Amino acid sequence: MDIYVLSIFPEFIQEYIKIGVIRKAVEKGLVKITSLNLRDFTKDKHRTTDDYPYGGGGGMIMKVEPVWNALKSIKKRGLTILLTPQGKLLSQKKLHTFSESDSITIIAGRYKGVDERIRTFIDEEISIGDYVLSGGELPALILIEGIVRLIPGVVGNYESVNTDSFENGILDAPYYTRPAEFMGLKVPEILLSGNHQKIKEWKRQKSLKKTLEKRPKLLKNAELTEKDKKYLEKIEKGDK
Ligand code: ADE
């Protein structure tokens, strides 16, 4: 997959992709990440990428020409995404869809907002949450990280990705690792039992319980079996 990022701080992107899972994916040739500096696509002496808004109002606006010039320079832009707090909320489902693209171009805004005409060049607007950051670089990295780990071959143990929180519409089960007892806190007996069927059932129940307690709205869209529903009814009634 080819990923392009348009930003005025390409260093942000270049530094982060040298680390961890993304670095491995790049080394394996599974993804190529190119960050372009929007200032390289300006024509004035000061390499200006922002300007005052027509009609007044506080804050500076990202100019349209550098963005368009940068987009034009990319041969295979693929899905073009603008990061903005006004976009659709990022979800695990969206990450899966994005991870199937051959190529993605991400525009990381800065300043108060972008010239509205930039929206005519893009396919999707994405927000990482209902809060405002100073720029789209961190959101871009979040998007890249979320996408790259879903590309087959990137994460060694694919089962681990499959059981992540949100993958099945609910939160992941609790995990424990050695030691079996720490300051009197014991790992649940069942996990040491070696009974895989029972462990699977226990994990499913814990996932459901956690989701009910922490993110109950997720259960509305989750795929639930009759057994799951019965279990949830039981704990809602106060039984364990
Ligand atoms: N840029 C600034 N804030 C943002 C957000 N919440 N999501 C995406 N891009 C942003």
What is the CATH superfamily label of the largest domain?
Answer: SPOUT methyltransferase, trefoil knot domain
Can you tell me the number of structural domains? 2
Helix content: 25-40%
Question: Tally of extended strands?
Answer: 10
Bound compounds? adenine
**What is the CATH topology of the largest domain?**
Alpha/beta knot
- DSSP helical segment count: 9
- N-to-C SSE string, H for helix and E for strand: EHHEEEHEHEEEHHEEHHH
Q: Identify the quaternary structure here.
A: single chain
Percent of residues in beta strands? 15-25%
| Mean of residue pLDDT values | 96
- Counting helices, strands and paired strands, the structural category is alpha/beta
Compute the separation of the termini in Å: 47 Å
What is the correct CATH architecture of the largest domain? 3-Layer(aba) Sandwich
Strand order of the largest sheet: 2-1-6-5-8
CATH class of the largest domain: Alpha Beta
List segments where confidence is low: pLDDT < 50 over at least 5 consecutive residues: none
The 3D shape can be described as: elongated
Biggest pleated sheet: 5 strands, parallel
List the helices and strands and how they pair.
Elements: E1 2-7, H1 10-16, H2 20-27, E2 32-37, E3 50-51, E4 61-62, H3 64-73, E5 79-89, H4 92-99, E6 103-108, E7 113-114, E8 124-127, H5 137-148, H6 158-162, E9 181-182, E10 185-186, H7 196-214, H8 218-221, H9 226-236
Helix pairs in contact: 1-5, 4-5, 7-9
